[in-house]
């Protein structure tokens, strides 16, 4: 130690001690002018400096104040109030010390303290309550605040609960001139739902704050385990939903999650039968005993889609519809269900929204399936019917006759079809119970037997999976019939070993399986009729109950229950995660170079799907001096602008005893030009913070322990330096590597073929030419990219076709082998050998007349581009070098042919070909004389009538030519008949023919026909009556007279038919008298004119409508008292005046009755209420042009 002896001979220790010596062996001392004492420590071989200058204070300062022993400065802010107190401060140095007294008094505000006890458990619906936040100063009020007003608010200093969840209640107190502000105190308030008699579910939020961190995709799905616990009745599932159900980057921060939970009662089935699954995973069940269709959603929720629950036959929507005894079920491509109704002998259709309609009726329904075109197929025990989407019904296979016969369509026979299935190809599988067979029916209705049963009778349901494996459900077993294999018991125990047990394979038990369906994953779903359950069977034979069950099984059944709701505050955090790895680090050090902590944030990396603004911090900071062999924990923290954090920790140790650092690199010494070479640096006894690769002393590559390059040149030198991050340590340099780079010589190859169009089977030789001095090349010939040929510069082949592509790959087999592929040669078109041939054809197909011009045409096949033709008649050359030859000088029996010469063919089997022979046949001239006669030879008719004349020929052949004439002018067409409606009296008609007999041109002219045509007579008729203005009284006689343009005379006869209202009356006379007409009767007369040339034989006259005035008798009193006598105001004569109006007024002029027509007599009421007795006044307008009738009418009661 170092001791000081003052002038007063006082000894004191200024440095070191016996307990904690600072010196090993202090020897020499020296003092400088600044007051520093220097001491020589001999054993430590060090010179140490001791500061002999500083300050002391005699007592502790008030709280909040600090004394600096180096400078003597007092600083800080007092936190307590103290009275004035004297403090002695002494300054000292190597020359002595000096003291002074300082008086310090702290004055300030009186502090306040809030006491805030935790809350008891609170429930939604609790009354407002005092939070019991108490301060040491009651003069200033304590203010409360809630962080989540959806859970609680502050009302008049009390807490008012508004919802379920949790919130932070903060108590604060402001200060004034005497008191300082109190530190805020907070407590968490949890609010649970009030117990509900209708709900057995309780939602308890997790203790806050609840943090929901987003995953590495920037999303998180809300699940119950993350936000709350839900409890309810034991052994009963709970359905929970969340709103929102998920969060993403846009949701970062404070959010609320609404949790809704409910717990249902068990779902029950009563004899389920038909079952079918749709593409979305919903399962539909025909619940026979409950007369409804139920649906099981993928989440297990069971709902009623349609059906009232009572038997019936009503179409409608949902529960408004009713069913009878339901059976099999199928589904179409639109999601519409089809179910058979045994009681109603019908097929019912159920839309996805539950709307039920009757699709077909009057059918003895059984199994049902639909094909890809939505055609319905339904079994009727001994047949299968097809019903198109528009309802057209026909027999598809079998007919109303039992039997066992494979055939097509209606010729096949079945015996009690119990179930149907259909595969993806449209083949139908029928479970033929009566014949113990499975029958397969193709889309063309071809029926075949694919399986005969010996193990059991196939009574139940059938289905087929996507692979063609057939499954049959029967009583308490499901059998599988693998495609092409034998039937095996898939699940279920021994036959008739009924029960209700889930399990695997034979361990499972069923009781009367009535329906079966298959989902896209190959799972079977079966209706367990007597167990009232729906069972699932996986492809591995694992059986579970998904709904219903005689033991009250409720697995997955969620169909009702009173919901409980809670709103829970959460904090959504972004998906920030550090991806850098930081193993513990040991940094070599030595005593001459203090080691400082590197900046590890420079190489830090992190992922954040919600933000690109990531910052890294390090603690302790880079540059912090490390003590030797003392590990320091370093924390790297990443933060983003959304307040998310991520941290990693590792240890860093400075080691003074580390061996000398070194660096070695390795890599290839020899390589080919352009090859990617990788060099690896391996440091020893040093932690590299920076790698610097060099090529020929020039920096290259990245800060990485490996360096890859493909640009090195021959004799380049690669090396590497590493920096440790410590400024006082020199870089570590690796060994140098000198690299030998061999050049690449790429072949340049071109190929050519010696013949691009060889004859079929002739060889083609390809030759490869190299032009850059390649030594020892290797050749690989290719046709269409497939290797062929030999390692040779030539390639010979005889099998190429036009689309083949030939190439050659040449490899330079030097130390740096390279390859190149030649140009492509394609279009080698082998020309097939052909044989020339020629065929000639005459323009005449039969015998000809002498002198007829005949043209022969030659058709050459494989004649080449420069062919010649030599025509011959009877072996003598004729005609010219042309493919056509014409002549009109042939004799009967001449033989014509042609010789073809191919003068330019390359691949031909012969140069000449001779055509077929054509023999000429000449017919001698005809000696027959033709004749023609037309009928009739005279017409007696009317102007404008259509007249027909017919020509009859002899010796004129089968198709002579006709030319009709009228008065010597051509008319008509070239036919044996002439029709005209424009002929007049005196016209002359003739016909000239030309014979069609072979080799004849003879003609003939017919007789002359004449005609007489009279003009048409047109009659007319009009009638008049003796009544003035056609108005009469009832029973008044009236006479009608018909006047015609023509009367009976000569050949003209006129008959009369009178009519009243279109009914025949009267005699055949131009006069008609009657006294029985009634009002508005219509009288008319029809005349029938007969004779020659009468136009419009039947004509109707003008109609006359008669007006018959009927006297109107009006009674002035009636008695509507209900005695059945005179209860209404009857005016029968008004029936003749259907358009009349009746208005009745009371004595005040108020209308009490109005009617148009009087079909129903007035009963003395107005708006259904009886009018009082008295006199009323009527106005009756008969609408006959006369003055209305009026007067009084009296009601007596």
Walk me through this protein's architecture:
InterPro entries: 6-blade_b-propeller_TolB-like (IPR011042), Ig-like_dom (IPR007110), Ig-like_fold (IPR013783), NHL_repeat (IPR001258), T9SS_type_B (IPR026341). One of its GO terms (molecular function) is protein serine/threonine kinase activity. This is Serine/threonine-protein kinase PknD. With 1197 residues, this protein is an all-beta fold. It has ten domains: 81 residues, Immunoglobulin-like (Sandwich), CATH 2.60.40; 83 residues, Immunoglobulins (Immunoglobulin-like, Sandwich), CATH 2.60.40; 70 residues, no CATH class; 229 residues, TolB, C-terminal domain (Neuraminidase, 6 Propeller), CATH 2.120.10; 82 residues, Immunoglobulins (Immunoglobulin-like, Sandwich), CATH 2.60.40; 81 residues, Immunoglobulin-like, CATH 2.60.40; 78 residues, Immunoglobulin-like; 84 residues, Immunoglobulins (Immunoglobulin-like), CATH 2.60.40; and more. It contains one helix and 113 strands. The strands form 34 sheets. Strands 60, 62, 63, 65, 66 and 67 form a six-stranded mixed β-sheet that branches. It is flat and about 190 Å long.
Q: Find the count of extended strands (DSSP E, 2+ residues).
A: 113
The percent range for strand residues is over 45%
CATH class of the largest domain: Mainly Beta
Q: Helical segment tally?
A: 1
CATH domain topology of the largest domain: Neuraminidase
pLDDT average, as an integer? 87
Radius of gyration from the CA trace? 61 Å
Q: What overall geometry do the principal axes of the alpha carbons give?
A: flat
Q: Please, what is the CATH homologous superfamily of the largest domain?
A: TolB, C-terminal domain
**What is the CATH-assigned architecture of the largest domain?**
6 Propeller
Number of separate domains: 10
Question: Helicity, in percent?
Answer: under 10%
The computed structural class is: mainly beta
Oligomer: single chain
- Low-pLDDT ranges: 551-560
Distance between the termini: 148 Å
């Amino acid at each position: 130690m170092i001791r000081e002896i003052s002038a007063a001979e006082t000894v004191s220790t200024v440095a070191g001690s016996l307990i904690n010596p600072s010196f090993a062996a202090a020897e020499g001392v020296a003092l400088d002018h600044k007051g520093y004492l220097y001491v020589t420590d001999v054993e430590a071989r060090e010179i140490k400096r001791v500061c002999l200058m500083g300050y002391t204070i005699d007592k502790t300062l008030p709280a909040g104040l600090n004394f600096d022993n180096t400078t003597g400065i007092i600083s800080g802010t007092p936190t307590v109030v103290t009275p004035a107190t004297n403090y002695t401060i002494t300054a000292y140095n190597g020359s002595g010390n000096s003291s002074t007294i300082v008086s310090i008094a702290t004055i300030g505000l009186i502090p306040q303290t809030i006491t805030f006890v935790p809350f008891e458990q609170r429930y939604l619906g609790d009354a407002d309550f005092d939070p019991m936040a108490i301060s040491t100063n009651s003069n200033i009020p304590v203010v409360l605040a809630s962080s989540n007003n959806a859970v609680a608010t502050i009302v008049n200093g009390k807490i008012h609960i508004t919802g379920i969840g949790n919130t932070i209640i903060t108590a604060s107190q402001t200060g004034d001139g005497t008191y300082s502000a109190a530190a805020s105190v907070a407590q968490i308030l949890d609010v649970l739902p009030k117990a509900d008699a209708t709900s057995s579910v309780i939602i308890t939020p997790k203790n806050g704050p609840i943090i929901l961190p987003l995953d590495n995709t920037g999303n998180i799905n809300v699940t119950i385990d993350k936000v709350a616990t839900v409890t309810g009745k034991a052994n009963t599932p709970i359905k929970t939903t969340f709103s929102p159900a998920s969060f993403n980057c846009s949701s970062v921060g404070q959010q609320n999650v609404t949790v809704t939970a409910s717990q249902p009662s068990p779902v029950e089935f009563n004899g389920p039968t038909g079952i079918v699954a749709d593409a979305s995973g919903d399962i539909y069940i025909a619940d026979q005993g409950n007369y409804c269709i139920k649906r099981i959603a993928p989440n297990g929720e069971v709902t009623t889609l349609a059906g009232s629950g009572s038997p019936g036959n009503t179409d409608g929507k949902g529960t408004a519809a009713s069913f009878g005894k339901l059976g099999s079920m199928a589904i179409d491509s639109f999601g519409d269900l089809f179910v058979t109704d045994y009681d109603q002998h019908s097929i019912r259709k159920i839309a996805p929204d539950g709307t039920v309609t009757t699709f077909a009726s009057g059918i003895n329904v059984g199994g049902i399936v639909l094909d890809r075109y939505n055609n319905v197929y339904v079994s009727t025990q001994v047949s299968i019917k097809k019903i198109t989407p528009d309802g057209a019904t026909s027999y598809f296979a079998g007919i109303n006759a039992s039997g066992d016969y494979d055939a097509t369509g209606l010729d096949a026979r079945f015996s009690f079809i119990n179930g149907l299935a259909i595969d993806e190809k449209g083949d139908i599988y029928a479970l033929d119970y009566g014949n113990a067979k499975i029958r397969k029916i193709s889309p063309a209705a071809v029926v075949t037997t694919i399986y005969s049963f010996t193990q059991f009778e196939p009574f139940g349901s059938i289905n087929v999976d996507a692979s063609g494996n057939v499954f049959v459900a029967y009583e308490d077993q499901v059998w599988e019939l693998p495609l092409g294999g034998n039937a095996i018991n898939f699940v279920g125990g021994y036959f008739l070993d009924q029960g209700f047990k889930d399990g695997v394979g034979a361990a499972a038990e069923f009781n009367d399986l009535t329906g079966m369906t298959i989902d896209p994953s190959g799972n079977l779903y079966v209706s367990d009729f007597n167990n009232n359950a729906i069972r699932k069977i996986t492809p591995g034979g694992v059986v579970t109950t998904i709904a219903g069950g005689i033991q009250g099984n409720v697995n997955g059944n969620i169909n009702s229950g009173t919901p409980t709701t809670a709103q829970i505050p959460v904090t959504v955090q972004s998906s920030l995660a550090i991806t850098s790895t930081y193993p513990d680090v040991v940094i070599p050090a030595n005593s001459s170079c203090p080691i400082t902590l590197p900046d590890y944030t420079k190489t830090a990396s992190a992922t954040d799907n919600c933000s690109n603004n990531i910052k890294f911090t390090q603690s302790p900071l880079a540059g912090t001096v490390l003590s030797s062999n003392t590990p320091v924990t370093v924390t790297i923290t990443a933060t983003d602008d959304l307040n998310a954090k991520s941290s990693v920790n590792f240890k860093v140790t400075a080691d003074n005893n580390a061996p000398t650092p070194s660096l070695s690199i390795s890599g290839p010494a020899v390589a080919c030009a352009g090859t990617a070479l990788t060099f690896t640096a391996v440091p020893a006894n040093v932690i590299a913070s920076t790698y610097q690769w060099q090529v020929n002393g020039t920096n290259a590559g990245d800060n990485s322990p490996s360096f890859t390059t493909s640009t090195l040149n021959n004799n380049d030198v690669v090396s590497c330096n590493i920096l440790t991050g410590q400024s006082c340590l020199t870089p570590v340099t690796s060994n140098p590597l000198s690299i030998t780079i061999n050049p690449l010589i790429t072949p340049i190859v071109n190929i050519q073929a010696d013949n691009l169009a060889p004859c079929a089977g002739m060889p083609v030789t390809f030759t490869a030419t190299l032009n850059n001095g390649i030594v020892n090349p290797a050749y690989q010939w290719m046709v269409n990219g497939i290797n062929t040929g030999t390692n040779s510069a030539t390639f010979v082949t005889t099998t190429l076709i036009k689309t083949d592509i030939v190439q050659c790959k040449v490899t330079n087999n030097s130390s740096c082998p390279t390859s190149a592929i030649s140009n492509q040669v394609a279009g080698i078109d082998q020309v097939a050998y052909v044989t020339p041939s020629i065929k000639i054809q005459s323009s005449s197909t039969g015998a000809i007349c002498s002198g007829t011009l005949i043209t022969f045409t030659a058709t050459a096949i494989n004649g080449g581009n420069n062919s010649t033709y030599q025509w011959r008649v009877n072996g003598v050359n004729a005609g010219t070098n042309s493919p056509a030859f014409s002549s009109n000088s042939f004799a009967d029996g001449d033989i014509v042919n042609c010789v073809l010469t191919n003068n330019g063919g390359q691949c031909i089997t012969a140069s000449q070909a001779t055509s077929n022979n054509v023999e000429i046949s000449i017919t001698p001239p005809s000696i027959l004389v033709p004749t023609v006669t037309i009928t009739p030879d005279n017409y007696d008719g009317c102007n404008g009538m259509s007249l027909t004349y017919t020509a009859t020929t002899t010796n004129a052949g089968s198709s002579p030519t006709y030319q009709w004439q009228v008065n010597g002018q051509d008319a008509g067409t070239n036919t044996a008949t002439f029709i005209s409606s424009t002929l007049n009296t005196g016209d002359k008609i003739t016909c000239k023919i030309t014979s069609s007999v072979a080799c004849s041109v003879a003609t003939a002219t017919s007789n002359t026909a004449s005609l007489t045509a009279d003009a048409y007579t047109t009659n007319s008729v009009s009638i008049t009556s003796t009544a003035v203005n056609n108005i009469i009284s009832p029973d008044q006689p009236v006479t009608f007279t018909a006047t015609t343009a023509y009367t009976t005379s000569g050949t003209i006869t006129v008959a009369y038919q009178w009519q009243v209202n279109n009914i025949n009356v009267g005699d055949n006379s131009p006069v008609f008298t009657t006294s029985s007409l009634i009002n508005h009767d219509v009288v008319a007369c029809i005349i029938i004119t007969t004779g020659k040339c009468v136009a419009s034989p039947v004509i109707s006259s003008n109609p006359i409508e008669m007006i018959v005035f009927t006297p109107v008798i009006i009674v002035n009193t009636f008695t509507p008292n209900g005695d059945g006598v005179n209860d209404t105001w009857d005016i029968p004569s008004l029936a003749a005046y259907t358009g009349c109006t009746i208005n009745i007024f009371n004595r005040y002029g108020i209308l009490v009755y109005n009617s148009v027509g009087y079909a129903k007599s007035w009963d003395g009421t107005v708006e259904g209420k009886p009018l009082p007795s008295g006199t009323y006044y009527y106005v009756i307008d008969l609408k006959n042009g006369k003055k209305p009738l009026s007067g009084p009418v009296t009601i007596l009661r």
